[in-house]
Design brief:
mainly alpha
Length: about 130
């Protein structure tokens, strides 16, 4: 639940940046920006939920699970952005650029939260072994 809040806050932050940038004339808001933000926010939260649930059960298999989620993500995200680009070819460059930058930010968020979770889990297991 907490990651969903982080993901939503990141999406709102990106949207505010887009809005301010468009207001100041720095760039135009891509037509599919809201769709992309909603999709990335929800899908990243769902994949995080899947990984964190599995992480609690099998910490030693986390690498396999994470790599599997990356493959799944590439397929789903590729299909999503391909559809966006096909439906709105006129704004393909702006939509693709916005998608890649947003994807990068959501991936950084996910990795940071997973890193903190893994470190806290390994610290707990070390303390249990020492006791």
């Amino acid at each position: 639940m907490r990651f969903l809040i982080y993901s939503t806050l990141l999406a709102l932050g990106i949207w505010l940046f887009l809005y301010e940038g468009a207001e100041k004339g720095w760039f135009l808001i891509p037509p599919a920006a809201v769709t992309i933000l909603i999709f990335l926010s929800i899908s990243t939260a769902l994949l995080y939920r899947l990984l964190s649930t599995r992480l609690g059960r099998a910490t030693d298999e986390f690498t396999k699970l994470y790599l599997g989620s990356v493959v799944l993500r590439i397929l789903i995200y590729g299909l999503f952005i391909g559809t966006i680009l096909y439906l709105d070819g006129e704004h393909a460059r702006g939509n693709a650029t916005f998608f890649m930058l947003s994807y990068l930010l959501f991936t950084i968020l996910e990795i940071a939260v997973l890193f903190l979770k893994i470190n806290s889990a390994s610290d707990l297991s070390k303390k249990e072994k020492e006791s």
